[in-house]
Design goal:
With about 170 residues, the chain is of the alpha+beta class. The chain folds into two domains: about 5-65, no CATH class; about 105-165, no CATH class. About 45% of the residues lie in helices and about 20% in strands. It is built from three helices and five strands; from the N terminus they run αββαβαββ. The protein has helices spanning about 5-15, 45-95, 110-125; strands spanning about 30-35, 40, 105-110, 130-140, 160-165. The strands form two sheets. Strands 3-5-4 form a three-stranded antiparallel beta sheet, with helices on one face. A two-stranded antiparallel ribbon has the order 1-2. It starts with a helix and ends in a 5-residue tail after the last strand.
Length: about 170
C-alpha cells in the first residue's frame, strides 16, 4: 500500500479527521531510490519500501557515527603522539644544547697555580666519558696589534687559559 493512501486512512481515523500538515507534504519530499536510480516522492513509496529505506538509512547513520568515533579516537592518538614527539624533541635539544659558552673554566691564570689546576683536572677526569682541551685566552699586552690572535691566542702568547671538558659521544 502506498504511503499517501495510508496517510489518508490514518487521517480519517482521528477525531479531527486530519494528521499533521507535514504528512500531506510527503509528495514534495523525495527519497533517492538506488534500485530506480532516481529520486521518488515519499508519498509514492510502498509502506514496506519506506520501512526498509528507513532501516537502511538508520544503519548508514549508525555506521557513520561509528566511523566518526573511530576517526575521533585516531585523532586523539595522533595528538598524543605529536605531544610525545614534541616532548622528546625538547628533551633531546635540552640534552645536547649548551647554554652559554662551550668552555667549562675560563680566566685560569697562566702561572704555576693554573697549570697545577689543569694537571689535576687531567689526572682526575673520567676519561671514558670526557675529553679535556686547554686553549689560550687573553693575548699578552706586548703582542697587541701583531696579528698573533687572529684565530685565537696560542698558549705561549696568552695570559690565561680556558679549559674545555667535552662529553664523548657514542662509540668514539
Amino acid at each position: 500500500m502506498k504511503i499517501h493512501r495510508i496517510v489518508q486512512m490514518l487521517g480519517a481515523t482521528t477525531t479531527s479527521g486530519k494528521l499533521a500538515s507535514d504528512m500531506y507534504d510527503l509528495n514534495y519530499k523525495t527519497y533517492y531510490s538506488e534500485a530506480d536510480g532516481r529520486d521518488i516522492p515519499i508519498s509514492h513509496m510502498d509502506f514496506q519500501h519506506l520501512i526498509r529505506a528507513f532501516v537502511k538509512q538508520n544503519e548508514k547513520d549508525t555506521r557513520t557515527e561509528t566511523l566518526e568515533s573511530i576517526i575521533e579516537e585516531k585523532d586523539e592518538i595522533i595528538d598524543k603522539l605529536s605531544e610525545s614527539e614534541l616532548r622528546w624533541k625538547k628533551a633531546y635539544h635540552n640534552s645536547v644544547h649548551i647554554n652559554g659558552h662551550y668552555y667549562t673554566f675560563s680566566e685560569v691564570p697562566q702561572d704555576e697555580e693554573g697549570k697545577e689546576f689543569v694537571r689535576n683536572c687531567r689526572k682526575y677526569l673520567n676519561k671514558d666519558s670526557y675529553n679535556i682541551r686547554v686553549k689560550g685566552q687573553h693575548l699578552k699586552k706586548e703582542l697587541y696589534g701583531q696579528g698573533k690572535a687572529y684565530h685565537g691566542a696560542n698558549m705561549e702568547d696568552s695570559t690565561h687559559m680556558r679549559v674545555y671538558i667535552d662529553t664523548k659521544k657514542g662509540d668514539e
